Automatic annotation (TrEMBL):
It comes from Niallia oryzisoli. The keyword Flavoprotein applies. Its EC number is 1.5.5.2. Pathway: Amino-acid degradation; L-proline degradation into L-glutamate; L-glutamate from L-proline: step 1/2. Its cofactor is FAD. This is proline dehydrogenase.
């Protein structure tokens, strides 16, 4: 039964504004507390400090989507700035990740850019780094355009390249000096723009990783796939690539033993830590990525 629940179904749910509003009232239900580090700054600080003490780096994401007004985007911007201030004031070892849709790109592009500038100025003040998460393909070009605009002033900003996109390799060549996170991709896209089969995505992912590492540009390899991770470890050993040039990244709550193992082996291991009440869309995408996650969610729900 669970295997019949399609990726498209969960991605459809992730975009449902009504369910998203209802979920905020539920609190962290349906097993979401296993993969979201609480509703508040206080709960987030506790979780990140625990991870740091285990030798794990973090990047924080104050969750939020479906922004349709400047007031909502201003609030999201203030939350991002407060997160950066909290990181600095509590001594956490963490970067920040943001989504342009949360900062108002669908409302007013220039308004969104100004919000990003506010965030990056705060990050610069505290010598921190901000990554712009890549969203669905409809936001792909505007994300890269805004990134390039911001990079003219702020070197402390990077983004994400999704290996399932057919244009990923070509676009990655234009981002040599930009710190990148490489991922497989979590949205449902049309065949004309994205590979549809797992092997195609996996092969392209590994190809991009190798190209990027050989370019000596700083790279975050974000995956839970142990086959990919072992291939990367072997490749950097063969090519004598310094461990200071790359890091592994995984999501909070997933494959925690592997995260710890990589850190213990001396690799940089960064955990993507989402927090906040607007958790529903993020959680639905996690369920869409792998069928195993559905069982994981139900297990967490039944334990409540």
């Amino acid at each position: 039964m669970l295997s019949a629940l399609s990726k498209g179904f969960f991605l459809y749910l992730s975009k449902n504004r009504i369910l998203n509003r209802v979920a905020k009232k539920w609190g962290l239900k349906l097993g979401a507390s296993q993969v979201v580090a609480g509703n508040s700054l206080e709960s987030m600080v506790v979780k990140v400090r625990e991870l740091n003490e285990k030798g794990l780096l973090c990047t924080l994401d104050h969750l939020g989507e479906f922004v349709s007004s400047k007031e909502e985007a201003d609030s999201a911007t203030d939350a991002a700035i407060l997160t950066l201030e909290t990181i600095a004031n509590t001594g956490l070892n963490s970067h920040l990740s943001v989504k342009l849709t949360q900062l108002g790109v669908d409302v007013d592009r220039d308004f969104c850019v100004n919000n990003m500038r506010r965030i990056l100025e705060t990050a610069e003040k505290y010598q921190n780094f901000v990554r712009i998460d890549m969203e669905d393909y409809s936001h792909y070009k505007v994300t890269l355009d805004i990134l390039q605009e911001l990079r003219e002033t702020y070197p402390n900003v990077g983004t994400v390249i999704q290996a399932y996109l057919r244009c990923a390799e070509e676009d990655m060549k234009t981002l040599q000096d930009v710190p990148l996170r490489l991922v497989k991709g979590a949205y449902k896209e049309l065949p004309m723009v994205a590979f549809q089969h797992k092997k195609e995505v996996d092969d392209n992912f590994m190809k991009l990783i190798k190209i990027r590492l050989l370019s000596r540009s700083y790279t975050a390899v974000a995956t839970h796939d142990h086959h990919i991770i072992e291939s990367v470890k072997q490749f950097v050993e063969e090519q004598q690539i310094s461990r200071d040039q790359f890091e592994f990244q995984m999501l909070y709550g997933f494959r925690t033993e592997m995260q710890q193992s990589l850190a213990n082996e001396g690799y940089k291991m960064r955990v993507y830590v989402p927090y906040g009440s607007d958790w529903f869309a993020y959680y639905m995408r996690r369920l869409a990525e792998r069928p195993q996650n559905v069982s994981f969610a139900l297990k967490g729900f039944l334990l409540k």
